[in-house]
Structure formats: structure tokens, C-alpha cells
Amino acid sequence: MGKLDLDQDAIPHHPAMIGLSEAGRAAVCQGAQAISLPSGTRVFGPGDRCNGLPLVIKGGVRVQMMGASGNEIVLYRIQDGEMCPLSLACLLTAGSHQSEAIAEEETQVLVLPTGLTEKLMNEEPAFRQGVLESYGQRLQSLMLTIEEVAFQRMDHRLAERLLQRQCDNCLAVTHQDLAVELGTAREVISRLLKEFERRGFVQLERGLIRIIDKGALRGLADAGGPCRSA
Q1: What is the pLDDT of residues 186-199, one digit of tens each?
Q2: Crossing angle of helices 154-165/175-182, nearest 10°?
Q3: Parallel, antiparallel, or unpaired for β 170-171 and 107-113?
Q4: Which tens digit of pLDDT belongs to each residue from 98-122?
């Protein structure tokens, strides 16, 4: 984890920073902290106090939660120009994190301390609007994830996720990775993938899944309801 130089030229790279007044820009340059996170870095974890609002400038962060059963589920991902709604809620309530955030690639994050976040929310309408819009979008994504877990069959969800993550009909992903994505056990994913292979939908290799019949997977995914993304 390394600190980056922060100047006013870097601020507009995040939508929430666009439209700041000169005083607001100066406050960000003085009080915010730009950090570089190598891939795999744990940004925060359950029980950690929230000391600032992280805005992703470049890269990607995965936010996940572990249940009492020990299974993990990906709640959502934060990409360029987005923010973490759970961090904002935690910050405003002076609480602690209940989830975990992991950098999935080399990521640059702008961290706004609590006092600075409150100041910008109170004094900068453009910042407040940008934060609330991002909060609403991420919250909607979280609600869709809850809907998937509660109401959609796992085989439909797995088919949809394979289609979402494939590149040239291949996924370099483990069964455990998919289990975390979908909030279930690795054994469940392995069983379903074996069934997909038996039906000619995919071909399984070590650490790699090849999609053989994309149309069949799309039909299965569509049978589970509207296309969703995490």
C-alpha cells in the first residue's frame, strides 16, 4: 500500500469531485489521501472502524460478506468513478464494517476522512449529489443480489454468471471463486458444473472453464428471470 501525490489536477478523475468550488478543491487537496493498493490488498474487514470514505479512482474492489455457515458472497464491485455505499453508511453512523473489501487489481483510491466528508456533504451540492447518485446505484445492485439469492435457482444464477465473466468463451476461474461470487458452497458449484459438462454446455479443465454451448447457457439463465449483474 503506497501513498500517491495529490494535486488539483487529479481530483476531477472521480465524478463526485466534478463541480467542486475552489474552496472545496483546496479542502480535498489538503485533507484527502490518495492511496495505491496492490491486487489482493484487504481494504477493510468486519469489525474495522470506518475512518474515511473511499472513492475508487482507478481499478476495482470486491466487497463481500461471510455468513454464519462460513460461505462467502460477493455483495458488489466498485469500479472506476464509484464509491462504497456500505462505507458511507458506516461513516455516517460512526459504526464499524460488517463486510470485507479486497482490491481485485492494482487500484487507486481517494480516501476522504470523516470530517472532510461531512464538510463536503454540507457545503458542496455537486459532491453531495454525486455521492447520493452513486449510493443509489450501488444500493440497487445490492438489492438485486439479495433478490437473486432469495428467489433465483442456483443453476440459473451460475449460467448467468458464466456468461457475464467469460472472455472469448473462457473463464480462468476456480469453483471456489464462483461459489464466493454466488454465496454458496464449492461443492454445489462443482456439482452444477459437472452437470453442465454432461449436458454439453461447458468443458472443465484445471482452473479453466470453456463455454461450448453459449445459447444453451443463455436459455438457462433467461429461464431464471431478467439478466442481473453483481
Answers
A1: 888 998 999 999 99
A2: 110
A3: unpaired
A4: 899 999 999 999 899 999 999 999 9
Grid coordinates in use for 20? 467542486
3-state SS of 143-159 is: HHHHHHHHHCCHHHHHH
Within a 13 Å sphere around the CA of 62, how many CA atoms are in the beta-carbon half?
A: 18
Q: Which domains are assigned to the chain?
A: 2-149 (2.60.120.10), 153-223 (1.10.10.10)
Supply the pTM of this predicted model. 0.64
149-194 pLDDT, tens per residue?
Answer: 666 688 998 999 999 999 999 999 999 889 888 888 888 899 899 9
CA distance 189 to 211: 15
pLDDT at 9: 53
Give CA–CA dist 61/109, Å, rounded. 10
Contact 230, 138 (CB under 8 A): no
What stretch of H or E contains 121?
Answer: helix 114-123
Closest CA to 79 of 35, 1, 138, 19: 138
Q: Which of 163, 54, 59 is nearest to 108 (CA)?
A: 59
Q: State the Cα angle at 111 between 105 and 114, rounded to 5°.
A: 145
